Amino acid sequence: MTVTDVIDRVSFMDFEPATASFRDDVLAGLSHPIRRIPCKYLYDAAGAALFERICELPEYYPTRTELAMLQRLGPEIAALAGPEAQVVEFGTGDGRKSRLLLNALDRPASYVSIDISRDQLIREAAALALDMPQIEVMAVCGDYTQQTLSLPTVGRRRVGFFPGSTIGNLTPVAATAFLARCANMLPGGAMLVGVDIPKDIAVLEAAYNDSAGVTAAFSLNLLARINRELGGTFDLSGFRHYAYFNEDQSKIEIFLISQREQRAAVAGRFFHFRAGERIHIEDSYKLAPATFQNMARAAGFEPTQVWVDPDGLFSLHWLLAPL
Predict the structure, then answer these.
(1) Domain named Histidine-specific methyltransferase SAM-dependent: which ranges (predicted)?
(2) pTM for the whole thing?
(3) The domain that contains 124 carries what CATH number?
């Protein structure tokens, strides 16, 4: 049996933002005095594949660190979750972390994957359904950073799962608002969140400026996506990836920088770029455990257990949702 054979066994709910949302956000962002494009648009099919390669790079510590923590802490997490839980994952990834968690839990009843990247979402949900036929699998295409989604409950307790330090891609205000929506979606349940910790600047900057150039290709794919989907005319060789750590705000900031004076069309509109002009495409906040716990409390959660890996690189948090 193949992944294609089990696609029909995956329940699918479609709340995918319209192409107009992508177009409108890009046009608005490029028209702003400080040019920016929301990082959620990095993850089309090509971007998701590039990010999977980033996760395997020697400089990129978060993925391997979190995987090792989930492997080691599985029994403890299972005891907190209880039997027959429904796992709701915000963001799909390549499914490795989902499988680690589901394999650790006591007879999980169902798994719900929410992601904006439709192709990756369906592929990974079908692959998980093939590997774990005893679990009901649901795939929800939507923007979990903006939408409060109504999900069917299959299981005794709903457990949210937000790994990968993706919480750091949101501003503190947006992250708190997102967590508040999660608390409403998980009444009486819990949430497991992965959070990157502040550390040596050289380690942080190397993780986002890898020597193989995969992260640069990931960033530039955003312009390639605009060319593919919005009739863009960006010359990718005219821009370069740049990432640095902003100590004052404890975040990595990522930009595409124009290498020369140039212009590009998007959806019939032209934009002029000066040499050195920047397009902001992503932030990655690094949060101390106490800082994240305060954020979770402000969103309505009760933080309980926090785990930190032996090297002090990464933390996992268990949050209780209100009834």
Answers:
(1) 22-319
(2) 0.92
(3) 3.40.50.150
